[in-house]
Amino acid sequence: MGIELVFETHSWSEDNDLGLATGWLPGKLSERGRELAAQLGERRRDNGITAVFTSDLYRAVETATIAFDGSEVPILHDWRLRECDYGRLNGMPAAQLHQHKQAHLDHPYPGGESWRQAIARVNGFLDDLPSRWSGQRILVIGHVATAWAIEERVNGVPLEHQITHPFAWREGWEYRLQNRTSEG
Q1: Domain 3-177 - what CATH class?
Q2: Cys-Cys with 90: which of 1, 23, 85, 160 at CB 3.0–4.6 Å?
Q3: Where is the active site (predicted)?
Q4: Is 146 annotated among the ligand-binding residues?
């Protein structure tokens, strides 16, 4: 039957303003981010969404809370939707960190994880969705790692390709997540 999966990134954060790669640090939305979160709510609140899943990092939780304030739609937090863990490099200048991101495709950041490990973590979340949400329309609020995992899983875009191209923000992505069979 499948799931209609809508993906949105967390809204603009104070660290985005400062050019920092927040990683597993909580982060906090900027004024612009709070406005964007309210706009996300205007776009998605009456869009047939039955549940919102969000990374448990504060900037994603704050995005969902603002967007769905006063709504009956449940907001569920899941740590597997987190950004890649840059380990000891969480919070460093993004331009500096991302110069070498291809080196961390399979090799973890110091004290953190690799991009492929982050994608596998998100895939664990995606694997669990059909048990409760098959046939429904859900919203996932996450990060670049979340987006790359969904793109690879649904559209077959290899991580090796995605990591070499800049991530381009937009107002949401829509996917059809097919249930995996026991054969693969």
Answers
A1: alpha beta
A2: 23
A3: 10, 83
A4: no
